[in-house]
């Protein structure tokens, strides 16, 4: 298992409200959604840490998407190489 940190900085001059963050990663993360209860102020940074437990080794993608009342379709993708952990 490892942690994925999703970071978003509000680029607008108004607060972001009613936000939600969705994450998925085939073979790694079951699709999940997190409602963001507080507003994200102008130039404010939001971070969410999600633990990932891969089921298979190999190259995988983790996809995060954010939407709120002021923005939609904000998406980030990262590729990771999952390796089998050898136990001595």
TrEMBL record:
SUPFAM superfamilies: Transglutaminase, two C-terminal domains
Cited Pfam families: Transglut_C
Boundaries of every Transglutaminase C-terminal domain copy: 1-83
InterPro entries in UniProt: Ig-like_fold, Transglutaminase, Transglutaminase_C, Transglutaminase_C_sf
GO MF terms, alphabetically ordered: protein-glutamine gamma-glutamyltransferase activity
Family: Belongs to the transglutaminase superfamily. Transglutaminase family.
UniProt xrefs under PANTHER family: HEMOCYTE PROTEIN-GLUTAMINE GAMMA-GLUTAMYLTRANSFERASE-LIKE PROTEIN, PROTEIN-GLUTAMINE GAMMA-GLUTAMYLTRANSFERASE
Name of this chain's protein: Transglutaminase C-terminal domain-containing protein
Organism: Magallana gigas
Taxonomy of the source species: Eukaryota, Metazoa, Spiralia, Lophotrochozoa, Mollusca
């Amino acid at each position: 298992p490892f942690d994925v940190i999703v970071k978003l900085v509000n680029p607008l001059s108004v607060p972001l409200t009613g936000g939600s963050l969705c994450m998925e990663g085939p073979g790694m993360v079951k699709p999940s959604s997190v409602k963001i209860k507080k507003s994200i102020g102008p130039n404010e940074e939001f971070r969410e840490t999600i633990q990932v437990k891969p089921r298979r080794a190999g190259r995988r993608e983790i996809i995060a998407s954010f939407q709120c009342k002021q923005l939609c379709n904000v998406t980030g993708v990262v590729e990771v190489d999952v390796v089998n952990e050898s136990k001595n």
